[in-house]
Amino acid sequence: NAALPQASDFTSAFKQQPDGSGACPSSANQCSSLNLETVWTNLLSCLGVSDSPAATATSPTYLEGLATQARMTVEYTTQSASSAIQAAIAGPKFNSCMTSAFTTDAKASAPQGATPSPVAISALTAPAVGDKASATRINVSMNLGGGLVIKLYQDFIVVFKGTAIARFFFLNPGGPFAPDLEQSLLTKVVNAS
Fold first, then answer.
1. Nearest one of 186, 192, 191, 185 to 7, comparing CA atoms
2. How far apart are CA 133 and CA 127, in angstroms?
3. How large is the average pLDDT for residues 47-71?
4. This model's pTM is above 0.85
């Protein structure tokens, strides 16, 4: 797991979730988590590519407060699979597939009784790490009832380096995830892959 971030890579306000799944403790009555593998599987299925990595490592979910989260996965696959995924992500179906995958995720991770708004997808400047990268911001508002609406910002970043594919999910309510921390984590994970 050398390529994955450690608790020391975050500020002290971030707490590692004990089971690493991003799931809420059974005592929590509301929770939004990053369903990393489900989103990835849905995205690849929609794009028409398959992925059978030889090895995969997923970080725990690091949580600050009630909803600010970060989670990463690094996988090692074949060059042909990596190239096919790169081409699909750069292809014409990417935005519609991203919208579909994150709409499904927003509905699945919405707190009980909450209603997610339609998902809005926008391209971000890809980070200058790895051989190739893709960066997308997903915005969705959660209507919690009683006039309470929380806007969520999710950054989904995929970095290719050789046969390694690093996937990053950053979520923050009210505004984008801290850019300096995001960049620091991207650099550390990709350099160690």
1. 185
2. 6
3. 90
4. yes
